[in-house]
Amino acid sequence: MTALFDIVFGGVFHAAVLFLVAAGLQLVFGVQKIVNLACGSFYALGAYFGISAVNWAIAAGVPPVLFLPVLILSGIVLGAIGPFIEALLRTVYDRDEAFQLLLTFALVLMFQDVLRYFWGANPQQLGDIASLYGSIQLGAVKGPAYNLLVILASIVIALGIGAFLQKTNFGRILRATAENREMALALGVNARVMYASVFTLGTILGTVGGALVVPTAAASLDMPVELVVESFAVVVIGGLGSMRGALVGALIVGLMRAAAISWYAELEMLAIYLVVIIVLVFRPAGLFGKAVE
Amino acid sequence: MNSKRRKLLQALGGTGVVAAASPYLSFPAFAQNTPIKVGIIAPKAGIAGTIGECGLRGTMFAVERINATGGIAGRKVELIVEEETNPKDSIERLRKLVLQDKVDCVQGIVSSGVSLAMGAVAEEMKALLIFWDGTTQDGVKETMANPRYVFRSTDNECEAVMASLLAIKYWKGKFKTIAGINPDYSYGRNNFAAFQALLKKFGVEHKVVADQWPKVGTTDLNSHVAALKAAKPDLIFSSLLFADLPIFMRTAHGAGLMDGGTKFVFPAAGFQHTALKKSFTPEGMIFGHNTLYFDHKDASPLQKDFVKMYVDKYKDYPHWEADRAYFAMQVFKAGVEAAQKAKNAWPGKEDIISAMEGVKVQSLGGPGHMRKDHIAEQTFYQGLTTHKNSYDFPTLGTVDTMYSDQIQKPPGADFWKWIETAQIKL
């Protein structure tokens, strides 16, 4: 029982972070119809900036209990780059998908150099911040409290996005634009504001994900590519453009990875992509995606 | 890219002309005006970036001392530094150093993947090449049994053999189940296999209850730790050595993996020694510092000078790559000077190579020599960790020292057969 808890807990933690990045990817594709490879770069940027933010907080005497809010805030602040990147993407909205992929991949490479310029080429780590939050123990079951807080933060963000999309006017307009862009524009939706807002929100999801994970990991120049590969598995499983798909896809990928590592570590990636292949064969649009007619 | 930016010319010791004058006078007939050019290829970025940086600092320390005392056989040393990246690009930089910069010797390389490919090219180009680290092995099989121009470091498995012997020495009879978490390439797999082979050799009954193979650079190890915890091993053997090692230790500590008295054997942890903080790194684990233990109480004056310089200048504590780099430069220096002395004239490349075979030197971490088959022998340090020190990371409470002829296969031997048949002392 304890072992099962550990495996599931590890898988859900991975899924929680993966969900944030994949949700950003889904949001941007849903409205702007752009497959944003740079979502991995936002994740890495969030991780590096999170380290700097916590170091500043430590220097300023901020109590350790506030480091988690500091990390989330740093991710949100970093979202300010969203409108500038979106302005760049405007040049390819009406062009072939290959151009869009090329431009967002160029952004990945450019961000890698930006990270190298500001933080250096070596992996960066945040001391032992995560353990300051202690452990949770229920009987024989024990796990790091920080990981639980990250899972809870992701759940809150998922619920928040859900409420935002379903209950607010802006969310309704956003969904309408995703459903029928031409009609939304014809009805007077300000596309420029809509796109900039959506892209910024997608950016924030990625940067917050990176900031949240860094106390348990390390920030490295390889992060963007690592995560974007798994995020695409999430998107394929869940269905391109679906937020519910991002949530379920992230859980499937996180748990499959954890199970594979526990039972036969060599199957870690194979297990994930086996699910991807099965979904592509039996449900090409993904579990929650809409089939294109 | 601007070649000036890639070229780090070290006219080191230029101000110490008077001090340097005396050694110059020792070689009046052979001293040349031009410096000896040494090319360095070392990683500057990524997971091995800090390792390359530490090695480069060891080289610069060696060159400063050499130049301050008159250079190598009267000629000052000039360094030209290039970056080690993937095998293809690193080999291009080797060609550039040899053909364009016309260096007298190339040193460096951390990755076995790069050294494996570069060794053959250096032989073909007849370029004198001394590896800091990595080997020219495919797994544990030597691919260059009789090199002429390539000199290489000790086998990568030396630290695993030593750590295994210490685990048996300290804990035989105190563990039955073992688990491994090792990097998913030949180094990690060979190390864990060597550990098990040595347990078998010394009659230690054991059962492998988990083996984890995270890819190098994996930053989320929660699931790996969960799997290890579920297996409840008495002992965990890990040759993680890059940025993933502190992540593993932090994650393991947070998950309670260290609560149950599990024993830890980490042969290569010294690469990350300052990042492994006391708060999540236990006492009493077997911890490998390879060929340089910075805090050795009985260290040589040379090591003490180096560590002091390192701490003062870089605000950090060095690890073994600095020693490997220093050793490579000293082997080259000793070879050149021995050849010059024997020939009574400035030696050619072939003379230098012959003189380097069997040469003994004092490196930062201790004595070492270059075997006739061009494989280094050096002094290794490991031991049990303690928190009783003034640092925020553990050091060694007990220091075990072994010369690598006890933990490295002899010339021409097969690694696995050597483990089976060697008379290895605990």
Features:
heterodimer; A: ABC transporter involved in vitamin B12 uptake, BtuC; 2 strands; 72% helix; B: 426 residues; alpha/beta; Rossmann fold; 13 helices; disordered N terminus
What does this structure look like?
Chain A has 293 residues and is mostly helical. Chain A has a single domain (2-282), classed as ABC transporter involved in vitamin B12 uptake, BtuC, CATH 1.10.3470. Chain A has helices at residues 2-32, 39-59, 67-78, 82-89, 97-119, 145-167, 169-179, 181-186, 191-213, 223-238, 243-263, 268-282; strands at residues 135-138, 141-144. In chain A, strands 1-2 form a two-stranded antiparallel sheet. In chain A, helix 1 (2-32) packs antiparallel against helix 11 (243-263) and helix 11 crosses helix 12. The longest helix of chain A has 31 residues, at 2-32. Chain A starts with a helix and ends in an 11-residue tail after the last helix. The mean pLDDT of chain A is 91. Chain B is α/β, with parallel strands linked by helices. Chain B folds into 2 domains: 3-154 and 299-377, Rossmann fold (3-Layer(aba) Sandwich); 158-290 and 379-421, Rossmann fold, CATH 3.40.50. In chain B, 39% of the residues lie in helices and 18% in strands. Chain B has helices at 3-6, 17-25, 49-68, 87-100, 112-125, 158-171, 186-201, 222-231, 244-255, 301-314, 320-343, 349-356, 415-421; strands at residues 36-42, 77-83, 105-108, 129-131, 137-138, 141-142, 150-151, 177-181, 207-212, 235-237, 263-266, 286-290, 360-362, 367-370, 376-377, 379-386, 395-403. A 7-stranded mixed beta sheet of chain B has the order 9-8-10-11-12-16-17. A 5-stranded parallel beta sheet of chain B has the order 2-1-3-4-7. In chain B, strands 13-14-15 form a 3-stranded antiparallel beta sheet, covered by helices on one side. Chain B starts with a helix and ends in a 5-residue tail after the last helix. The model of chain B is unreliable at 1-29 (pLDDT under 50). Classes of the chains: A mainly alpha (293), B alpha/beta (426).
